[in-house]
UniProtKB/TrEMBL annotation:
Classification via InterPro entries: Ac_CoA_lig (IPR011904), ACAS_N (IPR032387), AMP-bd_C (IPR025110), AMP-bd_C_sf (IPR045851), AMP-binding_CS (IPR020845), AMP-dep_synth/lig_dom (IPR000873), ANL_N_sf (IPR042099)
UniProt-annotated binding residues for Mg(2+): 535, 537, 540
Entry function: Catalyzes the conversion of acetate into acetyl-CoA (AcCoA), an essential intermediate at the junction of anabolic and catabolic pathways. AcsA undergoes a two-step reaction. In the first half reaction, AcsA combines acetate with ATP to form acetyl-adenylate (AcAMP) intermediate. In the second half reaction, it can then transfer the acetyl group from AcAMP to the sulfhydryl group of CoA, forming the product AcCoA.
NCBIfam families: Ac_CoA_lig_AcsA, PRK00174.1
Cofactor: Mg(2+)
Species for this entry: Paraglaciecola mesophila
Gene3D superfamilies linked: 3.30.300.30, N-terminal domain of ligase-like
PROSITE patterns registered for this protein in UniProt: AMP_BINDING
Family: Belongs to the ATP-dependent AMP-binding enzyme family.
Signal peptide start and end residues: none
Keyword NAD attributed: no
Protein name listed in UniProt: Acetyl-coenzyme A synthetase
Length: 646
């Protein structure tokens, strides 16, 4: 791991909400007197009834119960829209940038109010009310946000299904939460390709029994022909005569706001439930401090609203803070790899938040992604979703951020609601690849396999010892699974499933999922560490490392590599890469087997599915399990054909 330290840039201090002394004082209060601290922070929201009961939480496996602000009442859509209107209604909420570089749109808070009210009234007309579930399967267009906020306005619970998911996944989610309405579009657009969203919904509903589903609302986006059934209604027909007046529903702080399905290590995806008060506060306070957001800043989170990052950092956090965001329909590589830079220049983006997988995809093209790009509007960069290897960090820092912008490497999970461990731009000297320090109220700890807490500079399983407002409250319809998954491994604490290292300066470094830790000849190695070394070799674009059963070592190191464009794969190169890891990391980390491949099995959100790679490496390729969530399932067949240790 890189030990280089990058001091806080002077401009970050000038722009900031916080000084180091503020952070120290506020963090101490947040963990020593959470009731006082969070009662104060909660004032940043507009409450219909101000909460008096602040924290009522138990991580005891026999009685896991998490309640924040439980006697408070508020409405999320009111907080995200209405309260900004008087002074800032003319301010842009979203700059929408289409897949086609020539299309964009501006949505002010006034317009957002009208659009959300109309579709909210449309939903009410269909009989949707408080507590009903609504599925949203949309492209990255403003109507996705209108739909989410419309649900929040009338107290319905949304579940956004990522637009890249297949019909099976749609049906599973609809059935699991018994959604009665689904909102979709005729088609999506990505890199010029038409994505048949309505067709997928039709297939889901035709091939699966979805008894709860009553009505499908379809937004006309591309205008292509779609087939039509008796339960389908066009968005424009439904909302045509709807008023722009839609009184917000009074919600209890603990009423559910949304369900979001996420994969675990076992079984079907879990419907993680987030609530109205605690989640909104968590999303907005982290957005404010992690990005040092100030009115006037142009902020761009390049995630998809189908993932938690989109929920918290495109929709709820920024809107609660009255922010101006870019929302991007397309992909970073279309029409070519300069697109991100072009959007930054076009809309004068100040804050850019993206994922290491995107950074590495661009980095493989050297300086081309910034050719002809000024990039001078940028002042802050963010990273999320996986450990960022120092190589990618440096490329991001120097090539995109021009060695001027701090990088906030935010560690969090669908279950945590929003950022948990993160540098703060005006406070934390950066160590490339370190998620650094806890946000207010977050109490991380490291434990060994038996749950004994480890002190000082060490490595272990990352747990969180007490509740924070944005924490998921349950798994929809299966509280027992919630308890089993998160609270029984190390009783009395929240088990993150991630491993982490804490260094001598108390910085946390996420080493990857705990089930990805290898034990090679009795030495513990993080797969992320090895991957980081591998991708720092000039020939390597992406790397995935898994363990496989090895007679002598216990576990051997199986390496899957994707070469950079134009690289010729030879035996010499393979040897060179192997020696590289030996040299960069340790002889213990020397790969046993290296398989080159033109693709890796990734989920549609860009995460490598190690489960599959582990099976292939272990020669258990007949028991691969569910591969339906892969972006390109054919990659798996190629990998099996060419696997090494037959
Ligand atoms: C927000 C999000 C959660 C898992 C998490 C961890 C990995 C996320 C990270 C990171 C290292 C970071 N992860 N951010 N690892 N550094 N900055 O991605 O949620 O999709 O639920 O994934 O992603 O392994 O446990 P989710």
């Amino acid at each position: 791991m890189s030990q280089q330290i990058y001091p806080v840039p002077a401009h970050a201090k000038e722009h900031s909400h916080l000084t180091p002394a503020d952070y120290a004082r506020m963090y101490a209060e947040s963990v020593e007197q959470p009731e006082v601290f969070w009662a104060e922070q909660a004032k940043s929201l507009d409450w219909i009834k101000t909460p008096t009961k602040i924290k009522n939480t138990s991580f005891d496996a026999h009685h896991v119960s998490i309640k924040w602000f439980e006697d408070g009442e508020l409405n999320v859509a009111y907080n995200c829209i209405d309260r900004h209107l008087a002074k800032r209604g003319h301010v842009t909420a979203f700059i929408w940038e289409g897949d086609d570089p020539h299309s964009h749109d501006i949505i002010t808070y006034h317009r957002l109010y009208d659009e959300v009210a109309k579709i909210a009234n449309g939903l009410r007309k269909l009989g949707v009310g408080k507590g009903d579930r609504v599925a949203i399967y949309m492209p990255m267009i403003p109507q996705a946000v209108y739909a989410m906020l419309a649900c929040a306005r009338i107290g319905a619970v949304h579940t956004v299904i990522f637009g890249g998911f297949s019909p099976n996944a749609i049906a599973d989610r609809v059935n699991n939460c018994q959604a009665k309405v689904l909102i979709t579009a005729d088609e999506g657009l990505r890199a010029g390709k038409h994505i048949p969203l309505k067709d997928n919904v039709d297939t889901a509903l035709a091939e699966h029994d979805c008894p709860s589903m009553e009505q499908v609302i379809v937004f006309k986006h591309t205008g292509s022909h779609v087939s039509w059934g008796k339960d389908d209604v066009w968005w424009h027909d439904l909302t045509d005569d709807c008023s722009t007046d839609c009184p917000p529903e009074v919600m209890n702080a603990e009423d559910p706001l949304f369900i979001l399905y996420t994969s675990g290590s076992t079984g079907q995806p879990k419907g993680v439930v987030h609530t109205t008060g605690g989640y909104l506060l968590w999303a907005s306070i982290t957005h404010k401090y992690v990005f040092d957001y100030k009115p006037g800043d142009i902020y761009w989170c390049a995630a998809d609203v189908g993932w938690v990052t989109g929920h918290s950092y495109i929709v709820y956090g920024p809107l609660a803070n009255g922010a101006t965001s870019v929302m991007f329909e397309g992909v970073p590589t279309y029409p070519d790899v300069r697109r991100i830079g072009q959007i930054v220049d076009k809309h004068k983006v100040n804050i850019l938040y993206t994922a290491p997988t995107a950074i590495r995809a661009l980095m493989a093209h050297g300086d081309f992604p910034v050719e002809g790009i000024s990039g001078e509007s940028l002042r802050l960069l963010g990273s999320v979703g996986e450990p960022i290897n120092p190589e990618a960090w440096h490329w991001y820092y120097t090539t995109v951020g021009q060695s001027r912008c701090p990088i906030v490497d935010t560690w969090w999970q669908t279950e945590t609601g929003a950022a948990m461990l993160t540098p703060l731009p005006s406070i934390t000297a950066m160590k490339p690849g370190a998620a650094s320090h806890p946000f207010f109220g977050v109490q991380p700890a490291l434990v060994d396999g038996q749950g004994n807490e480890l002190s000082g500079a060490t490595e272990g399983n990352l747990i969180i010892t007490d509740s924070w407002p944005g924490q998921a409250r349950t798994v929809y319809g299966d509280h027992e699974r919630f308890v089993q998954t998160y609270f029984t491994t190390y009783p009395g604490t929240y088990c993150t499933g991630d491993g982490a290292r804490r260094d001598e300066d108390d910085y946390y470094w996420i080493t990857g999922r705990v089930d990805d830790v290898l034990n090679v000849s009795g030495h513990r190695l993080g797969t992320a560490e090895i991957e980081s070394a591998l991708v720092s070799h000039h020939a390597v674009a992406e790397a995935a490392v898994v363990g496989y059963p090895h007679d002598l070592k216990g576990q051997g190191i199986y390496v899957y590599l994707m070469p950079n464009e134009g690289v010729a794969v030879t035996d010499e190169l393979t040897k060179e890469v192997s020696n590289w890891v030996r040299k960069e990391l340790s002889p213990i980390a020397t790969p046993d087997l290296i398989q080159w491949s033109s693709g890796l099995p990734k989920t549609r959100s860009g995460k490598i599915m190690r489960r599959i790679l582990r099976k292939i490496a272990a020669n258990e390729y007949e028991q691969l399990g569910d591969t339906s969530t892969l972006a390109d399932p054919s990659v798996v067949e190629t990998l099996i054909e060419q696997r090494l240790n037959r």
